Amino acid sequence: MEPVTYLKLGGSLITNKKMPHTPRLEIIERAVTEIKDALAQADIGKLVIGHGSGSFGHVPAKKYQTRDGVYDPAQWQGFVEVWNEAHALNQILVEAFAKTGLPVMAFPPSAMIITDHGRIHAWNLEPILKSVEKGIIPLVQGDVVFDLALGGTILSTEEIFAELANHLPPSRVLLAGVEKGVWQDFPKHTKLIHKIGINNFSELNQIAGGAEATDVTGGMLEKIRVLMNIIDRFPQCKGLIFSGMETGSIERALLGETPGTLVSSN
After folding, report:
1. How many angstroms separate the CA atoms of 20 and 17, rounded?
2. pLDDT for residue 210 is more than 60
């Protein structure tokens, strides 16, 4: 089977998470160009791209506590606001990719997924799998979804990756954010953890920290947990948490370099 790489452009990378509804357009443009350049240089196999919501979706999501459930008219109005913000950022990414000529197509979870108590209950994956088969790059995102028990909730990009992995096993999962990796002394940022394996994962609960700005989907520890869940099921998979702020970093990661924190089965 041709290798599959999952790449997430984190919300902290592509937006200013401390300023509502503020995209980092220069970084988005550079990121999509680096993706195109990497694909032109080497055969890296199939690619799935995801992105976070950053200062778009996370702000109304926190205001309305959407991830915890949607029960009354005010919360349903908030549900729509979160969707609208997530969609707006997604459209910025879609247009940026269109300018590069890459065959990228958006698959919004809100239109495809139903959850039950926050866990994916139903998802028609055939369109995404068919797009990969035909050489189209699917673009997924953190998004609101309808939930059988909670009314509505939010799924993170990592949670979407974790479910998609059952049907399209990845060889690599690359998470590009603003942090250089996982810090042993967050938020001091002086001791970087270069490698995380199953054996030392439990030690991270005390040291990895969360997100500095608004993040309703769990911060750094949740990202590591989801990566370890994927790697536990697919031991050949490698995860990478790295900074996409440096010019060329996304391109280098796609081409096989491992800046930041490597997450693996050993």
Report:
1. 7
2. no
The pTM assigned to this predicted structure is 0.93
- The tens digit of pLDDT for each residue in 6-27 reads 999 999 999 998 899 999 999 9
- pLDDT (tens digit, 9 = 90+) per residue, 175-203? 999 999 988 877 778 888 899 987 776 66
Q: CA–CA separation, 110 vs 92, rounded Å?
A: 18
- The fraction of the chain above a pLDDT of 70, given in percent, is 93
Cα dihedral 41, 165, 232, 148 sign: positive
CB contact at 8 A, 40 and 101: no
In DSSP notation, the chain reads ---EEEEEE-HHHHB-TTSTT-B-HHHHHHHHHHHHHHHHHS---EEEEEE--HHHHHHHHHHHTGGG---SHHHHHHHHHHHHHHHHHHHHHHHHHHHHT--EEE--GGGTEEEETTEEEEE--HHHHHHHHTT-EEEEE-EEEEETTTEEEEE-HHHHHHHHTTTS--SEEEEEESSSSEETTTTS---EE-EE-GGGGGGGGGTS---SS--TT-HHHHHHHHHHHHHHH-TT-EEEEEES-STTHHHHHHTT---SEEE---
In order of their start, the domains of the chain are 4-263 (3.40.1160.10)
The answer to whether 155 touches 145, Cβ cutoff 8 Å, is yes
